[in-house]
Amino acid sequence: METSFRNSWVENDTGFFKTKHKTVKEFTIRVISIIRGIKLKTMKRIKINAYQTALVFKDGVYKKMLKEGKYWLWNETAVLYDLNKPFAPFVELNILLQDAALAEALHVVEVKDNEIALQYENGLLKAVLNAGRYAFWKGIINYEFVIADTNKIEITENISRATLQNRLVAPYVRSYTVESYEKALLFVDGKYAQMLTSGVYYWYKNNSTILVAKADTRMQQLEVNGQEILTKDKAALRINAQAQYRVADIEKAILQNKEYDKQLYVAFQLALREYIAGYSFDEVLEKKDVMAPFVLEQVKAKAEALGIEVIGFGIRDIILPGDVKDIMNKVLIAEKNAQANTIMRREETASTRSLLNTAKLMEDNAMLWKLKEMEYVEKIADKISNISVSGNGVLIEQLKQIFVPQK
Known about the structure:
By secondary structure, this protein is an alpha+beta fold. About 40% of the residues lie in helices and about 30% in strands.
C-alpha cells in the first residue's frame, strides 16, 4: 500500500520529484522542504512607513498602489515613493493614471511649449517648470501652480512684482523703467503699441522684439552758437543764442519726426538768418531787442508740429568782425569825445554867464565889490606864510584907501 501510494504520486506529479522515495516519511519531508524553498523565492514582506506609498509591479506591469502598512507580495515588486517629494515614475505616466486611486492621489501639471508654470509649496515659490508633464503627491505639501503663457508680451497672470524679480523667474521676464520726468513709447516687433508713463514695466521674454523710445519732458536748453550770418549790406556777424523748450507731445516728437531736437535747432538757425538778412548792419544793432521776439514767434509754429513747446529764446552775443570792431571802437571814441567837448562848452558858457551876472551885480553895489576883493585877498593870504611891510606913513594911507570905504 505504501509503495503503491508512492508510485501513484510520482506518476501523477508534474516534476516536483526527480526520484522515488522508499517511505511516506521521506516523501513528506521532501515535499515540505520544496514548499519552503518556493515560498522563500516567490514571497516577500514589505513595510511602507508613514509619508510613503508604494507602487506594485508584476513582470513589469503596474498592478496597484499601497499605502502605509505591512504587506506580503507574491512574485511582485514594490517601488517606494516619498510623499514629500515630486513623483518621478519610471514608466509612462498615462499608464499609471489609469488607476483611479493613484490619479486621485496626484497633482498632474501639464506645461505646453509656450508656457511656464510657477510652482508654489506652502505659499512659497520653489521652482519654475518648463514644457513637460509633472506629478506631485497630494496631502502633505500644499502645492499651487500658476500657468503663464509666455507666447504673449503682457503679463496678465496674477503674479506679484516681488515674484517677477525673483531669481527663478527673472530669466523669463524683461523689464524697463520710465522715470518720473520721462514719457515713452512701446514698439512690439517694430509696430507702435502704446504710450508708457512713469513706472516699472515687465514683459515676458520671448521671440517678439520690444523697443522702448523715451523722451525727457523736463525743460531743456538748446544752444545756438557760432552762427555766421551776413546782413543786408554784407556785413558778417556771429550770433550766439539760447532757447528753452520741453517735449509736449511725445507721439508727435517720436512717431512723426526723426531727431526732433536737431530739427528744432535748424528752425532757430533759419529764423535768425531770415531776420538778420533783412536788415543792414546798423539796423540790426538798432533793433537787436526785437530780434529775439521775432525769432521766437517764427519758431513756435514749427516747434508745435514737432511736438515741442518753446518756452523762451534770447540773444547772448553779437560778435563783430575784427575790422568792423576797430571801426566801431573809433566811432565810439569819436562820439564820446564829441560828447565831452559839448559838455565842456556848455559848462564854459554857464561859467561865463555866471561871471557876467556877478559883474553886473558888483557894478551896481560897491559893498559887493569890496566883499569880492576881500574874498580874493583871503585866497591870496592862504597861500602866503609871511608878510613883511616896510615904508613910511604913505603905505598905511594906501591900505586905508583899499580896505576902508570912502565916504
